[in-house]
């Protein structure tokens, strides 16, 4: 089973599997203590200005409310790469989780292609992006983008068996033509019964 996650704002994965992963249904999974920060250079052209999610904890399945704003000083065009580093805290140390079936610490050579797979060109962007005139395909023009307070439903999902209770840190570095455009770091805890 391949995992597909859309990171309109947070996570994007591709569809190239390299080995078999066992998936399991977690009982009442929750995300607690969600936090974020920009982790790039002060002169990076793409930055997240605000990002807020609630409630805390976030239940899966369940409702999520989010607001976000960011900007890019350059047009974001294909190929738009994304390097993701996923780490789990083990005995007080951050341990890198390897890339398995495009989930974990992975390199995605073209986020634009992934967006086209998730939302085929010619289809309207999903809500609430459509309501607020936010794009869901490359190119993304330079300028500011804002998602007002919006509600989302998180469906019940199966996660890899290795993605268990614990503290996680995810860093995503966006790049184009060998140049870093921006970096976002997210931390959270995952808990299930």
UniProtKB/TrEMBL annotation:
Residue stretches making up the MD-2-related lipid-recognition domain: 36-188
Keyword hit for Signal: yes
GO cellular component assignments: cytoplasmic side of plasma membrane
Superkingdom of the source species: Eukaryota
UniProt keyword terms in alphabetical order: Signal
GO molecular function term, any single one: enzyme activator activity
Family annotation (PANTHER family): GANGLIOSIDE GM2 ACTIVATOR, GM2 GANGLIOSIDE ACTIVATOR PROTEIN
Name by which UniProt lists this protein: Ganglioside GM2 activator
Organism: Cynoglossus semilaevis (Tongue sole)
């Amino acid at each position: 089973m391949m995992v597909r996650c859309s990171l309109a704002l947070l996570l994007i994965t591709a569809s190239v599997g390299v080995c078999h992963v066992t998936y399991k249904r977690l009982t009442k999974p929750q995300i607690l203590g969600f936090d974020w920060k920009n982790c790039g250079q002060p002169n990076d052209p793409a930055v997240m200005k605000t990002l807020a999610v609630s409630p805390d904890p976030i239940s899966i399945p369940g409702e999520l409310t989010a607001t976000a704003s960011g900007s890019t000083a350059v047009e974001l065009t294909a190929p738009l790469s994304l390097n993701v580093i996923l780490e789990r805290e083990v005995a007080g140390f951050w341990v890198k989780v390897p890339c398995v079936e495009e989930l974990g610490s992975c390199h995605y050579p073209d986020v634009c292609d992934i967006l086209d797979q998730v939302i085929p060109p010619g289809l309207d962007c999903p809500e609430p992006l459509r309501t607020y005139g936010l794009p869901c395909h490359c190119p993304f023009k330079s300028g500011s983008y804002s998602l007002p307070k919006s509600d989302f439903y998180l469906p019940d999902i199966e996660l890899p068996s290795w993605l268990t209770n614990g503290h996680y840190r995810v860093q995503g570095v966006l790049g184009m033509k060998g140049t870093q455009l921006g970096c976002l770091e997210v931390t959270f805890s995952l808990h299930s019964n």
